[in-house]
Amino acid sequence: MLKSADCGSLREADVDTHQVLAGWIDRRRDHGGIIFVDLRDRSGLVQVVFNPALSPSAYKLAEGLRPEWVVQIKGQVQRRPPDTENPLMPTGTIEVVADEVEVQNQSLTPPFYIDENSGADEALRLRYRYLDLRRPSMLRNLRLRHNVVKYIRDFLSERDFIEIETPILIKSTPEGARDFLVPSRRQPGNFYALPQSPQQLKQLLMVSGVERYFQIARCFRDEDMRADRQPEFTQLDLEMSFVQEADILELTEELYTGLIASVSPGKRILTPFPRLSYDEAIDRYGSDKPDLRFDLPMTDVSELAGETEFRVFTATVSSGGIVKGFVAPGCGSFPQSEMRQLEDYAKEIGAAGLAHVRIRGSSELNGLTDEDVVLSSGLRMPLEWSIRLASKMGAKPGDAILLMAGKANGVNQWLSALRTHMSERLGLADENLLAFGFVTEFPLFEWNGDGNRWDSSHHPFTAPADGNEHLLDGPDLGNVKSKAYDLVCNGSELASGSIRIHNRGLQEKVFQILGYSREETEARFGQLLEAFEYGAPPHGGIAPGIDRLVAILAGTTSIRDVIAFPKTQSGNDLLFGSPAPVDQHQLKDLSLRIEG
Ligand code: ASP
Questions:
Q1: Distance 536 CA to ligand 1 centre (A)
Q2: What is the pLDDT of residues 189-232, one digit of tens each?
Q3: CA-proximal residue: ligand 1, atom 4 (nearest)
Q4: Do residues 591 and 584 touch, judged by C-beta distance below 8 A?
Q5: How many other C-beta atoms are found inside a 10 Å radius of the C-beta of residue 576?
Q6: Smallest CA separation from ligand 1 atom 8, residue
Q7: pLDDT at residue 376, as a whole number
Q8: Which member of 40, 230, 423, 529 lies 3.0 to 4.6 Å from 428 by CB, making a disulfide possible if both were Cys?
Q9: CA 571 to ligand 1 centroid distance, Å
Q10: Relative orientation angle of helices 136-158 and 245-263, to the nearest 10 degrees
Q11: Closest Cα to atom 1, ligand 1: which residue?
Q12: Span 245-258, pLDDT tens digits
């Protein structure tokens, strides 16, 4: 090695030892006759002192050192003189007095300081990612990611799972997104697709008798990138045979519980993870990925609302819509201006409006007077009605009730956003808490109004819930429940999975409902259907996303911060400059011509 120690590891116990260090110049300070350099490697920083009286030649060279130059330094570790210690640096009680310095490489002036507080624009950071990754927080994220993946590998290996690689060049494997295609040179007009996930492959491995499979799998989905998505991302993909839903959920809970304790012991988690059915989650929180760090439960008050003279409510209810809301604790004293801000927020997210009832006044609902109950946003209700509303919703004097009206889907979405908004405003979420929960019994299908067809809520391989198979022949496919489940955490979906169909007839029926012709079914799924006829065991699995999990553990909101070389929001790689045109001869080899 070109070094005998890591910069950041030197301590008082090393005083008087001679060391060879190698790394990057973080900063150089000229203190009239003495030069100080902070030398950085991946372990951290150490201060190096160049004294012309002790080593004139090293001092001379040190005068020319610039940030990000790579140097090797030989010197002796010394205790820092009193009053010059830096308690903020782990190496702050010592320094290295340089005898020799050798410049191993120079550096151009970097486009931004390699510093946590450089505030550099993200596009610039991505363009010079190799410099950005020199920042300690980025290195910490990479190491955290390594620790997460290592824990997962060890955990599953101990439980007799086998890690198996599956191909990247494959055929279309629908998970609801567009495929990335790779043209075949040898078979003009034919294409490979990059896997959206190894779904069919892992199911085929179950037919093969593997019983317990996992893979740290790269998945590719050509989606219009919504906030914080990547066209390629990483999942822990796992599948088991001879299991039921509860087995997968238990394994997942055990994995996450052990993982967090091992890699992020400072985070708090609550076990057992609560389990909510999809219907409960929507009823109570308006979302299938509720933030469970706080409660703020919702109540459907359509019936009460329908009794009023308030046209918005009565018209909504009589046309099949709902009136629903939640109690904002302690917000009864919000002034009108603050309520107006909430209404503006509601309109921004697409809601028609926001009605509210503020309850000031006495300590119990029964003692309230007209003055205590402040109705607003067009609400003019008798006191008695407001008290019934408050007691149905569990509101107390001092609270505010926030209500929205409209079609169920919209109301749930808006209220869910408002719930998150209020929790931020009221500081309800404990930043240190990871509130995991399972959402189960998703609908098997959801109606796609634009395409005028049924889509799978999860994917087409998901089994209907027990006792729901006969509903596949019924009129309302929206009522069919499935054996799909999600793991959610702090308002994000971290994993999805399901117990699968393992029988050809049932699988064909589902494809038929989804609108696939016989030919399409055969072309896309023929291999799986055929395999099901050769003794497919009951099986199921789950696929936890790695990027989002590491981002949560790293305390960052962007998954780009935990991916070494991520793409931008628009799918560009700013470092390599992809996507990029290719040479004419490459296109020709592939029998491709670019139109337009
Ligand atoms: N393949 C699924 C997905 O990527 C996960 C699963 O069902 O295991 O969402």
A1: 19
A2: 999 999 999 999 999 999 999 999 999 999 999 988 777 789 99
A3: 197
A4: no
A5: 10
A6: 542
A7: 65
A8: 423
A9: 22
A10: 140
A11: 199
A12: 999 999 999 999 99
